[in-house]
Amino acid sequence: MPNLIDQLDIDNIQPNLWSGTLWRDPQCQQGMKDMLQLLPGFGMWGIVTGVAMAQSELPIAVSLLMGFLVFSAGAQLAAVPLMVVGAPLWIIWLTAACVNLRFVIFSAQTRRHLSCLRPAQRLMAGYVCADLPYVMLMNKYGKSPPASKENPAPLAYFCGLVAVNWTAWHASFVIGVLCAHWIPASWGLGFAGTLALLALLATMMLNRQSGMIAMVACIVAVAAYALPFKLYVVTAVLAAVCAGWMLDRLKLDVANDAATTNTDDT
Amino acid sequence: MSEHLLYWGMAIAGLTAVSVVTRSFFLMIPRDVQVPSWLDKALRYAPLAALSAVVTPDILLRDGVLLTSWRDARLWGAAAALVYSFWKKDMLGMILVGMGTYLVLLLLAGW
Q1: pLDDT of A32 above 50
Q2: Residue A66: partners with Cβ closer than 8 Å, 6 or more residues away
Q3: For residues A244 and A239, what is the distance between their CA atoms, to the nearest angstrom?
Q4: CA distance B71 to chain A (A)
Q5: Chain B partners within 8 Å of A66 (Cβ)
Q6: Which residues of B touch A102 (CB under 8 A)?
Q7: By CB neighbour count within 10 A (0-12 exposed, 13-18 middle, 19+ buried), where does A257 fall?
Q8: What stretches of B1-111 show up as alpha helix (H) in DSSP?
């Protein structure tokens, strides 16, 4: 009996993605505004992904269904050539898993604000949390107290971010698929997406430490670029995380040395 | 055609599952399990690293190899965009300036 009451109690204090209070929260609008700013960038990526898939030998309907369900440009573009040649299913799935490995790392962080949701809603929230919503959520609320019913702001911001990201990406993807004929691939229009990320990156360079970590990530990404399945991204993230950890330890050691030579306690 | 449909259907179903599982991976661990604080601190650079890793090869590599010549449309497109972003904090303007520079160099100068 106590377990049942505990369960009911938990249900009452968990935020609900479908509740109006979350969507009316001003942070939700802020999330939408912030994501809209990057729309020209990730919109182009959606279009370019659609164009690439439309130009493969898969039927248009299959491409559209794939985009709608899989919602991951990297996985889709890696899977399409394999599907076209009839590769074994497990190879297709494994390739996609490797390409999407970075999301596993990201989920360790988004957990902070998304784990207050019910399990089914957690799955849904995770599924729509693509690269940009993750980066922007962590930028704004990375160090904040975890989201909860009393602290819905991070969750509301997340809702705003994914509402715009999901809708706009799918719209651009469909546009890309249907208008592939008129969009010249040689123009490399996806570069707009890179520029948008570059702009976002520029706002994240807050101090020398971020600059150094970014350099580590850049160097490792370039060095590891030849790895299959786009693993260079995960490799660079892990290298940068290690570098960050080492820098922290270094600062801690310096601080400890300073503390032992002082008589005050900081 | 029908074997194709079954194959494609299963491929897409599995790919969808991959998307769901990879993106929700650590979310499915019970709420009371805490991420150790050293890991939490270390991970705070992951977003920065991910962005850097995605952006850099696109600008500095051409066909998987480091740029050999400075006559590269993307390099100058990115540079123009960065210069603009120091001047004005306008995302759309930055993308337009960067893409404009890039396309002019690509299509007119043939870089």
Answers
A1: yes
A2: A53, A58, A76, A79, B12, B15
A3: 9
A4: 16
A5: 12, 15
A6: 50
A7: exposed
A8: 2-24, 37-43, 46-60, 73-87, 91-103
Look up the pTM and report it: 0.86
The label of the residue with tokens 């705003």 reads A160
Residues present in chain B in total = 111
pLDDT tens readout for residues A108-157: 999 999 999 999 999 999 999 999 999 999 999 988 998 888 889 999 99
Q: Could you tell me the two tokens for A122?
A: 């957690």
Average pLDDT, chain B: 88
Complex ipTM > 0.90: no
Phi-psi region of A4 (alpha: psi -120 to 50; beta: other; left: phi over 0): alpha
Closest CA to A50 of A73, A31, A33: A73
- DSSP 8-state assignment for residue A57: S
A154/A148 Cα distance (integer angstroms): 9
- Would you state the torsion angle of the CA atoms of residues A210, A213, A214, A220, taken in this order, to the nearest 10 degrees? 180
Asked whether the beta carbons of B105 and B76 are under 8 A apart, the reply is yes
Would the CB atoms of B41 and A105 count as touching at under 8 Å? no
3-state secondary structure of B66: strand
Give the one of A70, A110, A248 whose C-beta lies nearest to B41's C-beta: A248
Min Cα separation A167/chain B (Å): 17
Query: Taking the C-alpha atoms of A56, B95, A233 and B41 in order, what is their torsion angle to the nearest 10 degrees?
Result: -150
CA distance A143 to A209: 17
The predicted-structure confidence for A171-220, as pLDDT tens digits, reads as follows 999 999 999 988 887 888 889 989 989 988 888 888 888 999 999 999 99
Q: Which residues contact A8 (CB under 8 A, 6 or more apart)?
A: none
DSSP letter assigned to residue A182: G
Integer Cα distance of A105 and A177 in angstroms: 31
Q: Rounded to whole angstroms, how far apart are CA atoms A94 and A133? A: 25
Residue entry with tokens 């101090």: A207
Between chain A and chain B, the number of residue pairs with CB atoms below 8 A apart is 262
